[in-house]
Amino acid sequence: MSKKAWGGRFQEDSISWVEEFNASIHFDKVLIEEDINGSIAHANMLAAQNIITEEENSLIKDGLMSILDDYNNNKLVFSVSEEDIHMNVEAKLIEKIGAAGGKLHTARSRNDQVATDMHLYVKKEVKTVIESIELLQQTIIELAENHIGVIMPGYTHLQRAQPILFSHHILTYFWMLERDKSRFNDALKRIDVSPLGAGAISGTTFNIDRFQTKDELGFSGIYHNSMDAVSDRDYIVETLANISLSMVHLSRLSEELIFWTTDEANFVTLSDAFTTGSSMMPQKKNPDMAELIRGKSGRTAGHLMSMLMLLKGLPLTYNKDMQEDKEGLFDSLTTIKGSLKIMNGMLETLTINEEVLEEAVTEDFSNATELADYLVAKGIPFRDSHEIVGKLVLSCINKGIYLKDLPLPEFKAASNVIEEDIYSILSPQVVVNRRISYGSTGTESVKQQLEVAKNHM
Ligand code: ARG
């Protein structure tokens, strides 16, 4: 059994399966770069404040760099009995440089160390997530721009409602992602804060300079209360919440893709690369990637709940419960990055079945509101026109035809204000393009919307 860094007051040996339960090295080893950068900044500050010598500082820095080198060359062997990344690195450092390595932890605790590592790591990862969101937004803009004339059925209650431009529909997701991006950016304000120098709970008696380490590590802000610094995990909750909501957005888009690719709809076709076959049914082409994103959105929401429950009722300051903040977060980050990338690939390679969509919007009743509005324009109160059109729809359904197929005399029998021009009014192109209000689905409005969207990029 190796000697523990904290072994002084202990008399009995530790038990390996207890150590196993206590350890976090299996998952917190991904923090190695942040841990080493944090330590280098801390050592530089200790030297600048004459708490360690320049010689000790350079020994420490060289030692830490060579540990990182070993890690990158797969030469570093972690040990469970050293528990976590912080103590593994420190033990290696002492092994490499001797006594000077033991000075690195002066005026520092693992409590502010782990918080520093996590702030640095979450900041780096959230920036990557924001970049992936932007890539997807760009793909959506291109998709909308390249298919500006394509009309499709718009749904409410998953029942045909009114015809809309495909571009209008897909741009909805641009705006959801835009809000996601702004939430992640906003959270960065609270992520980008330095806890280093808070010590275990109360600060330190050494004359440290917390602002120097804050600046060297590139943090924008600093915790003003050492207890808050080591016990705050709000930024992790926020990040998990932001990921969960983005995943919910992606799950909605996934669901639409799944519906659009059914034989029943056949509105779009996914490229082979983003689908899979069935082991039994040779005809199948399944939208597995979209289904997986939909499914994974449950997992990220679960991690958010776990984190909230972890913190609920937790007294100040550091409690070992907090070690449980990592796996869910790491998994959520992997999940959102993977899902954004897959969604981007799916949309980039999507084929829109324009003829199917054209037929879909001519062979339905999604122009009924248009007929009602036509009657209103001729002076009939909307409630009466709604009733008239409802009856016409019913009689069409009974005959197995659509409004466009009704002969003029039957229109006139329902309301004598209806004229021959009704047939052009009922065409999906006219229905869509008569929508000119700001933010509506008319081609001109959508073109305007596209310009605004591009200005957000
Ligand atoms: N592995 C621990 C964690 O992830 C590091 C901090 C441990 N601090 C302590 N005093 N036990 O939270």
From TrEMBL:
Keywords: Amino-acid biosynthesis, Arginine biosynthesis, Cytoplasm, Lyase. CDD domains: Argininosuccinate_lyase. It is found in: Cytoplasm. It is an enzyme of class 4 (lyase). Residues 8-302 form the Fumarate lyase N-terminal domain. Its main location: cytoplasm. Residues 365-433 form the Argininosuccinate lyase C-terminal domain. One of its GO terms (biological process) is L-arginine biosynthetic process via ornithine. One of its GO terms (cellular component) is cytosol. NCBIfam families: argH (TIGR00838). This is Argininosuccinate lyase. It comes from Jeotgalicoccus halotolerans. The gene is argH.
